[in-house]
Amino acid sequence: MRNLLGERTSRAGVVIGVGMGGFVDGIVLHQVLHWHNMGSAVVPPTTLEAMQRNMVWDGLFHAGTWLITFVGVWMLFGAAEARTLPSRRAFAGQMLMGWGLFNLVEGVIDHHLLNLHHVRDLPAHVPAYDWAFLAVAGVGFTVAGRLLSRKPRGWGT
Known about the structure:
Structural class: mainly alpha
Number of helices: 5
Oligomer: single chain
Shape: globular
Radius of gyration: 17 Å
Number of strands: 0
Strand content: under 5%
């Protein structure tokens, strides 16, 4: 794992970033803005029954992101015990990279391959949002996080 993410301890930051990215998606896009639910392209929430079905899928999604975040915190605790914690800067970059990776994987799978939902399903699907989401919140966050997590030039080995 060292060659993919840098230091061994970076895995905790990336895993926490994946979980936290899922929480941001669920809280902001599902609950605050009401742009989509986990299955809103399959079962548009136009009736109370459809809304309830979507709410169950959203709840399962949140349970999964909670579990991923918990695993990341557990990994971070292990790194603290081993006294191999990254710097705050590197940890922030690792979390941003994890958030970007979450957005890339979830965006490609749920928005494009499975067509479960789109960034903006409600009131209508806007395809440009899906592509902008992948570019900015997916590729952009991943690259920015990777750059932030690296040691600046001139630092010791």
